[in-house]
Amino acid sequence: MTIRYNELFDHVYVVLQSKIEEFRFLQYRSLTEEELWNYCIDRKWRKKEIESLPIAEIVATVFDLTPSEVLNYHRFVSHQALDLQSELAAVLFHAKSNSL
């Protein structure tokens, strides 16, 4: 039986909530359930068909997450976004300067 992607998130939402509560207990308050889910998709399951993963594997993956690995990933992604914004601003500024 294959579960659709959105239904899968709904099935494991309670597990994600539990992990977020654990992180908050450890004083890591900035993460959300969606961010944990996206981290798992982007890093833990990037080469797998998510819809065909057994629920037990998904739950085990979420329960094994550490705050440091998730936060390091989000820092990395944030820095990439900032670099991209800086590059875009430089290109736009250069284009505007040339048109004057």
From TrEMBL:
InterPro entries: Post-transcriptional_regulator
Name by which UniProt lists this protein: Post-transcriptional regulator
